[in-house]
Amino acid sequence: xxxxxxxxxxxxxxxxxxxxxxxxxxxxxxxxxxxxxxxxxxxxxxxxxxxxxxxxxxxxxxxxxxxxxxxxxxxxxxxxxxxxxxxxxxxxxxxxxxxxxxxxxxxxxxxxxxx
Amino acid sequence: xxxxxxxxxxxxxxxxxxxxxxxxxxxxxxxxxxxxxxxxxxxxxxxxxxxxxxxxxxxxxxxxxxxxxxxxxxxxxxxxxxxxxxxxxxxxxxxxxxxxxxxxxxxxxxxxxxx
Lengths: 115, 115
Known about the structure:
Chain A is mainly β. Chain A is 0% helix and 50% strand.
């Protein structure tokens, strides 16, 4: 079975500050890892994903994440927060990258950006 | 990019009635569709996976007779909540994937309130 742990249900940063959202996973097979963003009353939008290859993955809106197998982590970062980044962020894992692969989501981290 | 729509975006119904939610892939053929349920301030929980033309596969603990899923075409899947009760009130999100994609595309969600 796979699982995802997101440390910190709520993170608050100042505009322009570094954003760091933590995600640790558990998987018995090489994982495929995803970060999604959800704005209020909307569906999820894919920020970035790791399947194979380069462990540092760059996504949309200036976000990036690094897959660290030894730490079973896939933390999401952004050098400089913007007000528009305020949203709910979900880390997810699947056991393969096929189109029918099931996603297991973490509990989410709400990012607040203050002036 | 691939677009997934849901209809309605919100619905209020009386206890004991049935509600149908539609999920459509607008610009691609969705061989697989997923239905998720999200409680307030919580993560997404996969309810079922449906492949076009075949019966849906339900996750453990999800009542298949209560949550009827039909995936009759490559662009449409429906979720019918039968004999709805207040505890069925939730945010229902669908996602879709197709043969030419290696990710799921999420709909905007449907908020169901059962009175």
